[in-house]
Amino acid sequence: MRPFYILFRHNKPGEDIRFSIWKEYDDTKIWDSPILEVVEYYNTRKEAQNALAWQKRKNMKGEMR
After folding, report:
1. Residue 64 falls within a domain, yes or no?
2. Which residue, of 22, 23, 30, 45, has the fewest CB within 10 Å?
3. What is the pLDDT along the chain (65 residues), one digit of tens a residue?
4. Phi, psi at residue 2, to the nearest 5°?
């Protein structure tokens, strides 16, 4: 089973928007929660890192593209 990568946006009230990338193998999990929002799923870590860099460059504060 090949891993995939998830780009998350952290939604904690009163804090700056943060992102994280998690490596995952189980595609049956449901990840959305009040404080973690799935931005997108990626096949490689490099793709996820590029998307994160795009978010930061555009200063989108976590809005989906």
Report:
1. no
2. 30
3. 889 999 998 887 777 778 899 999 998 888 768 888 898 999 999 999 999 998 877 755 544 44
4. -85, 145
